[in-house]
Amino acid sequence: MIALIAGSGGQLGRALQATAPAGVTVIAPAEAEFDITDADAVASVVADARPTLIINAAAYTAVDKAEADEAAARRVNVNAVGLLAAAARTAHAAFAHVSTDFVFDGTAHTPYLPDAAPNPVSAYGRTKADGEAAAVEFHGHPLIVRTAWVYAANGANFVRTMLRLMAERAEVRVVADQIGTPTHVPTLARTIWALTAKGSTGLWHATDAGVASWYDFAVAIHDEALAAGVLVRPCRVLPIRTADYPTPARRPSYGVLDKTATWNSIGPARHWRDELRDCIKEIARG
Q1: Long-range pairs for 162-167 at CB < 8 Å and ≥24 separation?
Q2: What's the mean pLDDT when you consider all of the chain?
Q3: Which domains, from first to last, does the chain contain?
Q4: Partners of 209 in the beta sheet?
Q5: Looking at residues 95-105, what average pLDDT do you find?
Q6: φ, ψ (nearest 5 deg) of residue 13
Q7: What positions carry a catalytic annotation?
Q8: What integer pLDDT is reported at residue 206 of this predicted model?
Q9: Rounded distance, CA 213 to CA 180, Å?
Q10: Distance between CA 236 and CA 175 in Å, rounded?
């Protein structure tokens, strides 16, 4: 298998390279060499790579900025997806695309099944939902993997932000009424590889196991970081309501994804707390 990765420099792109199975040749051009918003550039890179699989690990993820500039988000999250999907179809390659729990409105009280109807409440969510549709329209039979709350030892993410704030401040305040599931990026990467190896197509969900609020997640980050020596002093973590921390974009209050089909196919994921502990230990090692 020859796998071409778009978005190779992001946290998922790096994880896909690190977890690639034996027998897979990974081609991971830098963003400067692979402008996925340029049709000619996409066609040229795909023609040179001759992939049997294209994985789109690139996305516009600035949720609040998208409210003021939805067109910028749409160029990456919709238009570029169409270009990659069409190029994969032309190359007779499989196409895997990553989406998000933000395609849902967060009004559910039980985990969202893959076939639940999208109803995004933000510009970012709209572009990701439209990106799913573009993947289907321009490829025909893509693999679409929805995930949530992704973090890694490196890069810009909630874990790194919390560690920085906890080191700088005596207390941090974190929203406690938004519920979802943290996802250590190696979990997502391994899921994508496992599903593509089985030739899976359609909609699938992938996160770590368990459920948490952002406050729960922050408390766990604090405790694990103290235990690992990443934090040298305690920091108070205080719960607040979403209404106490207004943002330009609405967030789903409930974004838990049902992974039953995924786990039945490739095996269950570990609990998010176990994955977080591994991530914090990686950070401690430097």
Answers
A1: 162/218, 162/221, 162/222, 163/221, 163/225, 163/230, 163/231, 163/283, 165/235, 166/221, 166/222, 166/225, 166/231, 166/235, 166/237, 167/231, 167/232, 167/235
A2: 97
A3: 2-151+183-208+252-270 (3.40.50.720)
A4: 271
A5: 98
A6: -60, -40
A7: 124
A8: 98
A9: 6
A10: 14
